[in-house]
Amino acid sequence: MARYTGPVCRMCRVEQKKLMLKGNRCKSDKCPMNKKRAAPGKDPKSRPGKRSDYGVQLREKQKLKRIYGMLEKQFSLFFDRAMRMPGITGENLLALLERRLDNVVYRMRFASSRSQARQLVLHGHICVNGKKITIPSYLVDPENEISIAEGSRKMAIIRESLKEFGKSGVMPWLSLDPDTMKGKFLLIPKRIDISDLGDIKEQMIIELYSK
Predict the structure, then answer these.
(1) Which class for 154: exposed (0-12), middle (13-18), buried (19 or more C-beta within 10 A)?
(2) Minimal CA–CA distance to 163: which of 4, 27, 17?
(3) CB 43 within 8 Å of CB 190
(4) What are phi and psi of 86, to 5 degrees?
(5) Is pLDDT of 5 > 70?
(6) Cys-Cys crosslink for 117: which of 59, 90, 102, 149, Cβ 3.0 to 4.6 Å?
(7) CA-to-CA dists, residue 76 to 27, 79, 81, 186, angstroms
(8) pLDDT digits (tens, 9 = 90+) for 99-149
(9) Number of helices and strands (H, E) in the chain?
(10) Residue 35, SS3?
């Protein structure tokens, strides 16, 4: 499976936005974004002053793609699927991304980042409706039960990650019992509910792919 293996914090510097790619490190003083470091590349003074429409649209796509930890080919496949679905393409795309198993594992506080959640899935630590699933892009349906495999419930990284549940709970479209390490994907979220994406403008991504 293809995956990005380069420096992760560089992505946040490129976008000049915290993408929360390294879990707890992003919340600590060690995060490079707290030091207001410039974007990598040329000296800022030598860069063009204003981005083109294409440049702005590209940055929106790159931000969303990097937040969910996807490469271009897979992201394009998700966009194509969203476009074929009834309704608003941008909202369909975000709903599909939120249904990814690695994202749901992260949202349920079983992992401190989506990359860590992806590892848990790949290594067989996650069950959907009692069955082990090792495909991070598996799409979870409403009322599906997500749980930690019985033999993995003593893992330190999972127990450490679950401490976040006591601080901030889970998203309203999820439910979780931290004691049994089981939760449910209650319903497909609407755009207005996915508040932590901040200023992502999905309409620009649609315009980019429509060119």
Answers:
(1) exposed
(2) 27
(3) no
(4) -70, 150
(5) no
(6) 102
(7) 30, 5, 9, 27
(8) 999 999 999 999 999 999 999 999 999 999 999 999 999 999 999 999 999
(9) 10, 5
(10) helix
Specify the residue for token string 């976008």: 15
**What count of other Cβ atoms lies within 10 Å of the Cβ of residue 46?**
7
Q: Among 118, 88, 100, 115, which Cα is nearest to 206's?
A: 88
Burial of 95 (C-beta count, 10 Å sphere; 0-12/13-18/19+): buried
Q: Which tokens belong to 185?
A: 């994907």
| Residue at token pair 């207001």 | 36
**The residue type at 167:** K
Q: Which two tokens stand for residue 20?
A: 């929360």
Token pair of 182 as six digits: 């089981």
What six digits make up the tokens of 53? 């429409």
